[in-house]
Specification:
By secondary structure, this protein is of the alpha/beta class. It has 2 domains: about 5-45 and about 100-210, Ribosomal Protein L4, Chain: A, CATH 3.40.1370.10; about 50-100, no CATH class. Helices cover about 30% and strands about 15% of the residues. Helix 4 packs across helix 5. It holds the Pfam family Ribosomal_L4.
């Protein structure tokens, strides 16, 4: 495989050399069926099942036969909670015990993630920074760093560690910026953002954690 390298930027937006990337991680060819499978599964697994209707057995009332079986000239009915009646139970309605989860093998999930990350690299949308360069959780500091990087004012995914509390807090106040832990990378978040910004120290972490 050919070597892959991307420029490294300082917090001031200046170029500070380059970072070599593992082609086995950041040079994976895209396969749309794999990406589609993982994306739809992730969306299905995060789906909340809220809609719930009651059957005729669960609706309150309707225990007494509304009128006698014969002799009234009206149609036969045994309960006012029949699905035929207004206020009656629902037939084949949505139930809260529905299960939409889809199982995807771990290896396939990793493959899809590497594909979308590789696509970012191929389109110069993976940005490596030397460090964040600020210690307090000020939104203006993170905005200042991102302003000097390619893709400013585009939807950006910032990769962090639990120790980057100042970055995580600052990102919450920026409309087009989302922070995500390096151990929580997923296909959907990478696809939803135009650019991915990662500190230089986390490149090796990604290559180690997500290798096939």
């Amino acid at each position: 495989m050919e070597k892959i390298s991307v420029p490294v930027y300082t917090p001031k937006g200046e170029k500070a050399g380059s970072q070599e990337l593992n082609p086995a991680i950041f040079g994976v060819a895209s396969k749309m069926p794999v990406i589609h499978q993982v994306t739809t599964a992730q969306q299905a697994n995060s789906r909340q099942v809220l809609a719930h209707t009651k059957t005729r057995a669960e609706v309150r009332g309707g225990g007494r036969k509304p009128w006698k079986q014969k002799g009234t000239g009206r149609a036969r009915h045994g309960s006012i909670r029949s699905p035929l009646w207004v206020g009656g139970g629902i037939t084949f309605g949505p139930r809260s015990n529905r299960n939409f989860t889809q199982k995807v093998n771990r290896k396939v999930r990793k493959q899809a993630l590497l594909m979308v990350l590789s696509d970012k690299v191929a389109n110069d949308r993976l940005i490596v920074v030397t460090e964040w360069g600020f210690a307090d959780a000020k939104t203006k500091h993170l905005a200042g760093v991102l302003k000097g990087l390619p893709g400013f004012n585009k939807k950006t995914l910032v990769i962090t560690t639990p120790q980057d509390r100042q970055v995580i807090s600052a990102a919450k106040n920026l409309a087009k910026v989302t922070s995500i832990g390096v151990n929580s990378l997923n296909v959907l978040d990478v696809l939803r953002n135009d650019y991915v910004v990662v500190p230089k120290g986390l490149v090796n972490v990604i290559e180690t954690r997500y290798k096939l």
